[in-house]
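Standup notes
- DV: blocked on the single-chain target, sequence here:
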Amino acid sequence: MLQNARSRQMPNRPNDGTRINEDIRISPIRLVKDDGEQLVLETHKALQMAKEAGMDLVEVSPNAKPPVCRIMDYGKFRFEQMKRAKATKAKQHIIKVKEIKLHPKTADNDYEYRIVQAKNFLKNGMKVRLVMQFRGREMAHMDYGRRRMDQAKIDLADSGELEMDSRVEGNTMASIYAPKRGLPVAKSATEPMAAGEA
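- DV (later): unblocked, structure below
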């Protein structure tokens, strides 16, 4: 019985916090018409105008004094908002950051393999975070790791741009490379790496 009473009181209450129709209890309000004309009037009068037009009275600026409302089709308005948000999300270009780990004692062939991996990631439009990890006594000889990171700068110069130079963070030294501007990005990010990952 209580549920039915509640559903009658709030037939189309939005769940985004926007007050519409009978949920607007403050009076008077500032009503903005389609032509830009503004009227300050009692809420029940604005609500009556909305009902006559077959529309909703929607509070668009609740913190204004008096609150600002508009007469509109709220369902259509929400649909358009969601459509715009979806379109904006689709246009966003998300850049992935791939991490490649090295050690001061990484063998030359392993280092070269990781550089090839980094070049492939950069060619596919991803950023690369190159991390040199130090263990135990290696912390006392960070210059070995720095030399390797300096060599990586030279080896990756044709594929990427150094975005953040080698920076020590605890027991690691990291640098970030971004794809080089002007180079074409590979169509599929998975194709070049398929053979290397297997």
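- Follow-up: The two ends are 63 Å apart (CA to CA).
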